[in-house]
Specification:
A hairpin with a 3-residue loop joins β13 and β14. It contains eight helices and 15 strands. Helix content is about 30%, strand content about 25%. The strands form two sheets. Strands 7, 8, 9, 10, 11, 12, 13, 14 and 15 form a nine-stranded mixed β-sheet that branches. Strands 2-1-6-5-3-4 form a six-stranded antiparallel β-sheet. The longest helix is centred in the first third of the chain and has 14 residues. With about 290 residues, it is an alpha+beta fold. The chain folds into two domains: about 120 residues, D-amino Acid Aminotransferase, Chain A, domain 1; about 160 residues, D-amino Acid Aminotransferase, subunit A, domain 2 (D-amino Acid Aminotransferase, Chain A, domain 2, Alpha-Beta Barrel). Bound molecules: pyridoxal-5'-phosphate. Pyridoxal-5'-phosphate (PLP) binds next to α6 and β13.
């Protein structure tokens, strides 16, 4: 079976899927995206992802490429046509195709939309979560509007590549005051020695992660103690546990930071429990 992508109104073979060379996403990173988890045949938290997509678009003054309900339909279609049971679905919307010029294109240029889906192994993800991941810190060097989920991910690419070259799977950005902001493609959390869950406030130079929001709901429901405040790299070294959250990883324990063990160097019980509970709290409605 060949993979299928959706490109500007058509379902095409993934191998043939293409956008124009003057697409503004390609030339200026002038676009936004979303990634939803596909779990057990379900698309996870689509309404929240579409809300965030709408917010990103409106912050950049890009129109919806089509009605929100149509976008929702295409997301489900692409997952179905690729027979993805576990994996992810990706949507990208750019300001469209126009002669290269920094100014917005003339009236009437339609935004471009691309949707792809790909399968991944749930067993491999579970095995990774049993082991935990290593994280490597990196100086925060992104623009202040990281709350907008733009495709301008060059700093994230460099930070994550640096992590890989230093034995890690994720980077943790550290701001000028020594506080962790978030991961290269995840939100960052610790559990203190006293058992308090800590994550940076959503309004404070991070992407407002959907997974982060769902995990906060679980934490509240379970009556766990938490604080939304910045934590320093130093505090993370001394934490009992650490973990990251994202649609791509759900809840993933962090067992090493800059080569040092976190806690006993094994995934913590709080992170593992939150991972277990995660899909009890997600929205799997097909709307
Ligand atoms: N932070 C960054 C920089 C990200 O790129 C992502 C996801 O791509 C996240 C956090 C996690 O967001 P979500 O839970 O919505 O996937």
């Amino acid at each position: 079976m060949s993979r299928i992508a959706y490109v500007n109104g058509q379902y095409v073979r993934h191998a043939d899927a293409a956008v124009h060379v003057e697409d503004r996403g390609y030339q200026f990173a002038d676009g936004v995206y979303e990634v939803c988890e596909v779990w057990n045949g379900n698309l996870v938290d689509v309404p929240r992802h579409l809300d965030r997509l709408g917010r990103s678009l409106s912050e950049l003054r890009i129109d919806w490429p089509m009605a929100r309900s149509a976008v929702n339909f295409v997301l489900h279609q692409v997952v179905r046509r690729n027979r993805v049971r576990d994996g992810l679905v990706y949507i990208q919307v750019t300001r469209g195709v126009s002669r290269r010029d920094h100014f917005f294109p003339p009236e009437g240029v339609a935004p471009s939309i691309v949707v792809t889906a790909r399968a991944s192994s749930a067993a491999a993800a579970a095995a990774q979560a049993e082991e935990g991941i290593a994280v490597v810190s990196y100086p925060e060097n992104r623009w202040p509007r990281v709350d907008i989920k733009t495709v301008a991910l060059l700093p994230n690419v460099l930070a994550k590549q640096n992590a890989r070259e230093n034995g890690g799977k994720e980077a943790w950005y550290v701001d000028a005051d020594g506080f962790v902001t978030e991961g290269g493609s995840t939100n960052a959390w610790i559990v203190t020695k006293e058992g308090v869950l800590v994550t940076r406030p959503a309004e404070d130079r991070i992407l407002r992660g959907i997974t982060r929001a769902v995990v906060l709901e679980i934490i509240k429901k379970e009556g766990l103690t938490f604080e939304e405040r910045p934590f320093s790299l130093e505090e993370a070294f001394n934490a009992k546990e650490a973990f990251v959250t994202a649609a791509t990883t759900v809840v993933m324990p962090v067992t090493r930071l800059d080569g040092k063990m976190i806690g006993n160097g094994h995934p913590g019980s709080v992170a593992s429990r939150l991972r277990e509970l995660f899909h009890t709290a997600t929205d799997l409605r097909v709307v």
